[in-house]
Design brief:
Strand content: 25-35%
Helix content: 25-40%
Radius of gyration: 22 Å
CATH superfamily of the domain at 24-69 and 179-243 and 337-400: FAD/NAD(P)-binding domain
Bound molecules: flavin-adenine dinucleotide, FE2/S2 (inorganic) cluster
Number of helices: 9
Largest sheet: 9 strands, mixed
Distance between the termini: 28 Å
Length: 503
């Protein structure tokens, strides 16, 4: 199967400041683990509030999901409001909207006040359907908007050449270049005296009155508060996050098109999801980001097929001149679709976590930063109970909890029963597959130079069997979404240990 090997995330082309590794012990007020949109925004807010703050990242800053997002900045989060209204009630559904609207407003105000050049434009956000199965859902979402005071309108056509039965538009939402935006925040953070360290993975936390972040190289950061913004919390601390979240991957293609893109941001209600927005190259030319094809990590079809599906959707919708970039990334979903933001467990009041944005992390991540700042500075917030990770809303959380964990159990067992016939020597150049080595399941990839990389495919998190992802050349776990390079290094958690290499 062939799909051009295009350059990776367009956003990541932007040059960023570089930071050293941590090579000594530190004493600070707040230690933040993870430099994505949540960690950086939280760091800046707390620095401005007078705290002595340090941010560390395992990799280079902004190379996680934030560096691979679509960066629509909107409170239209698929069809969430009717679901929240039914499951959590009007008060909580309204709080969810208010928190995200506050996130959106904070971003807009920051960009305006600081004149941040980050390709920010106000855009209308559309959710649409061409399937009769979704007509009622769109109508229900529209009623939920009315009940919650969200100013949406029903529509019967789009400004784009896409067949539509009905849809909902929310005016004056926004889009931006996430890295240009966050580059400004990180510079302000550093100018105010904040410290940033890259290539500094946190591996453990020692609890206490002054909890300590322990880094892989053996250095300690002692602090009054720790904030874990590592996407999947790098440490579970008996919060059982792996039983309460799942990871979904999706794909993005950037296309140069012949016609003028009419503006607006679009997402289909039905699956496979189709998401569209434009962005502008340095020379002023617009190109379109075509996204979608979500699936649980490690549970998709051959990953290249996802790019092919987006390519054919792009070619049906536009006169495509050229595809310029392709990339994929994953985000985390909680049991009730509301992020987990607050104390990591109910009895730990100086360690916070923010995660589970369900692919809407631009406003949710900013709202999380505002909430954590409030919790640290005042100890309370009107949003505390809605977002607290210790909540357990009996319905639908119980149902979703069992669905998630039954799915994990199924993949655990299926993987163990899978019998590989292929041998490493059967592989072509650039091919990866589950193979049999001495009668046992293993994973092999033959690189461009013909070298074989063989690893034990048992996930180091909790023992599920990994699947090959040929789009990203990685080993992905169908249970909780960990990913490993073909050499066995951890790319995404919750796993922390590398895979065993087989010589
Ligand atoms: C394909 C796709 C499209 C999306 N589109 C949109 C969109 O249009 N609009 C929207 O609002 N949201 C969107 N999202 C969601 C949004 O991008 C994410 O929710 C958000 O970027 C998550 O930010 P974060 O700061 O939590 O995590 P990340 O950006 O992943 O940052 C976490 C950081 O923690 C670091 N880290 C991890 N472990 C450790 C450790 N042990 N020690 C130190 N550092 C560590 C990582 O290196 C990383 O830099 C999309 C998501 C995907 C996958
Ligand atoms: S991520 Fe949990 S078993 Fe692999």
């Amino acid at each position: 199967m062939n799909f051009p090997q295009l350059p990776e995330s367009y956003w990541r082309k932007t040059e960023l400041p570089q930071f050293k590794e941590l090579n000594s012990n530190l004493e600070v007020d707040v230690a933040i683990v993870g430099a994505g949109i949540t960690g950086i925004t939280t760091g800046l807010l707390l620095k401005k509030a007078g705290y002595n703050v340090t941010i560390i990242d395992a990799d280079s800053i902004l190379n996680g999901t934030t560096g691979h997002t679509t960066a629509k900045v909107t409170v239209q989060h698929n069809l969430i409001y009717n679901e929240l209204l039914n499951n959590l009630g009007e008060e909580k559904a309204k709080l969810y909207f208010d928190a995200n609207n506050m996130g959106l407003k904070w971003i807009k105000d920051y960009i305006t006040k600081n004149k941040v050049e980050c390709d920010f434009t106000e855009e209308d956000a559309y959710i649409y359907t061409n399937s009769t199965n979704y007509l009622t859902q769109i109508e229900n979402e529209s009623s939920a908007y009315n009940q919650l005071g969200i100013p949406g309108e029903m529509i019967s056509k789009l400004p784009l050449n896409i067949p539509v039965k009905t849809g909902l538009v929310l005016r004056k939402q926004a889009q931006f270049h996430p890295i240009k935006y966050l580059k400004h925040l990180i510079k302000e953070f550093v100018n105010l005296g904040g410290l940033v360290f890259e290539n500094t993975p946190a591996v453990d936390i020692e609890k206490g009155e002054r909890p300590i972040v322990k880094t892989k190289k053996g250095f300690n950061i002692s602090s009054k508060h720790i904030v874990i913004t590592s996407h999947f919390p790098f440490l579970d601390m008996f919060g059982f996050y792996f039983t309460r979240m799942y990871a979904e991957r999706s794909y993005i293609l950037a296309a140069k098109i012949q016609e003028e893109f009419p503006g607006g941001m679009y997402i289909s209600a039905e699956s496979p999801t189709r998401s569209l927005r434009y962005t502008t190259l340095e020379n002023g030319q617009k190109f379109v980001l075509i996204g979608g094809e979500s699936h649980k990590v490690g549970q998709g079809v051959n990953t290249i097929r996802h790019y092919e599906a987006l390519k054919s959707f792009g070619e049906q919708t536009f006169r495509v001149e050229e595809f310029l970039y392709r990339w994929s990334a994953q985000d985390l979903f909680t049991l009730d679709k509301v992020p987990y933001v607050g104390q990591i467990t109910s009895n730990t009041n100086n360690i916070f976590v923010a995660t589970g944005y369900g692919k809407w992390g631009m406003t949710n991540g900013t709202a999380a930063a505002l909430l954590i700042k409030e919790l640290i500075t005042t100890g309370n917030s009107i949003y505390k109970d809605l977002f607290t990770p210790s909540r357990f809303n009996t319905d639908p959380s119980v149902k979703q909890f069992f669905i998630n964990n039954a799915d994990v159990a199924k993949h655990f067992i299926d993987g163990k029963l899978e019998f590989a016939i292929k041998k490493p020597d059967d592989l072509d150049i650039n091919e990866g597959s589950v193979v049999s080595v001495n009668g046992k399941r293993a994973g092999a990839y033959k690189d461009e130079e013909g070298r074989l990389h063989i690893v034990d495919t048992t996930c180091t998190h909790m023992g599920c069997e990994l699947e090959w992802n040929n789009g990203e050349k990685s080993w992905d776990c169908p249970c909780h979404g960990s990913r490993f390079s073909f050499k066995g290094d951890v790319l995404e958690g919750p796993a922390k240990k590398t895979l065993r290499r087989i010589e």
